[in-house]
Amino acid sequence: MSITQNLTTSISSSSSSFLAPSSFNSRRQNVSLPAKRVGVCKCVATPQEQEVQTAYKTKVSRNANIAKLQAGYLFPEIARRRSAHLLKYPDAKVISLGIGDTTEPIPEVITSAMAKKAHALSTIEGYSGYGAEQGEKPLRSAIASTFYSHLDIEVDDIFVSDGAKCDISRLQMVFGSNVKMAVQDPSYPAYVDSSVIMGQTGPYQKDVEKYGNIEYMRCNPENGFFPDLSAISRPDVIFFCSPNNPTGAAATREQLIQLVQYAQDNGSIIVYDSAYAMYISGDNPRSIYEIPGAKEVAIETSSFSKYAGFTGVRLGWTVVPKQLLYSDGFPVAKDFNRIVCTSFNGSSNISQAGGLACLSPEGLQAMQEVIGFYKENTNIIVDTFESLGFKVYGGKNAPYVWVHFPGRSSWDVFSEILEKTHVVTTPGSGFGPGGEGFVRVSAFGHRENILEACRRFKQLYK
Ligand SMILES: Cc1ncc(COP(=O)(O)O)c(C=O)c1O
Q1: Closest residue (by CA) to atom 14 of ligand 1?
Q2: Which residues line ligand 1 (CB under 6 A)?
Q3: What is the pLDDT of residues 437-458, one digit of tens each?
Q4: 108-361 CATH, one of 3.40.1000.70, 3.40.640.10, 3.30.450.20, 3.90.76.10
Q5: pTM of the model
Q6: What superkingdom heads the lineage (predicted)?
Q7: For residue range 55-86, what is the model confidence (pLDDT) as tens digits?
Q8: Burial (0-12, 13-18, 19+ Cβ within 10 Å), 263
Q9: Shortest-distance atom of ligand 1 to CA 168
């Protein structure tokens, strides 16, 4: 068996529950493709499932909560499959519309501010070391006035961070292990995985593809991608992402009023992930605080990642209003502040200089242009799948297109698309059992790659 075959076999036989064993049989490609690889493959295979052979073992037992996790985090698994594909087809021009990483250069008005800050660090006057853990005041003020003007969010309610994903885990540390979570199903995997790691869940139940003690709130075309809140049993914390990754659905004002009302009636806390809010084109709310009463029940986390191409720079923020209280009356913000001060030393001063530049009038204009570019990509992808007769969701208010393949396993469709078109997508079931039968196509890509991927989709599904 060749190395390629060996690796491919070991990957497809992964015992992950959400990673359905690939039943897709590789057939000869029927699409003729240019022979050249696009860009650099950054796929790093984590040795998670490989047994580390050492003669010496410590006496420390493995964290039983981490041991509950099923295989790898979704995106490293996709990267592994992509690597295996490249070994199989070394000359293939692989296009990645899977992981949801930004591709377009950061506008110069933003990078020049970061460069200036970096150079200033080499001078006596411009040097600064540790900053405030909560972020620099001017950036916190700019976030407040840009995203929360007229919403009565105060500057010290805002905590600047190294990204929304990191804040999701810090929030889980705040909540601890004795809470019950609810998540949209499908949803961004970090909510469920961090909940498992914190010990909030029971073991994984293979038959239903869910962890125990998490409320999976089904979101599908039939319910307009908004859960039936009357059908869930009371959670302490509700993770809610709008516009949603992966479905692309943006909740309406009426739906968010219902959500806030539910939290008020049940004494739950909402963690509202608005990482894609600037992609909204209609009049859907861009912040949960547009809903009256939300400050008493909701935290909001957001990010510069998908607005300014900061996925590598790393900058985000979380709003914890001082009105949000625990059952004993203690402010949640004080505990969040304690966790931030204990486990985080503040965002990089260079990325904060970039964030401030993002929120200048020129920076805002530049971000709108980048977002507009990705939205054009989204339209191209939506038009392609619709012209092929597929039912397509999302896209309008988010950089993700949620394509329906009724009755099919989403991992099989993922494999079919990869095998026959060399395009990496994301299987819907990787976002939870509610994603089965769907594939997420990301609009983050250079225009020529989006056009080429769409040409290949047309050849495959014509
Ligand atoms: C819904 C959602 N929240 C958070 C993140 C992570 O954002 P950040 O890069 O700020 O950590 C992502 C990234 O894809 C996301 O889709």
Answers
A1: 100
A2: 100, 163-166, 188, 241, 245, 273, 275, 303, 305, 311, 316
A3: 999 999 999 999 999 999 999 9
A4: 3.40.640.10
A5: 0.89
A6: Eukaryota
A7: 899 999 999 999 999 866 688 889 889 999 99
A8: buried
A9: 4
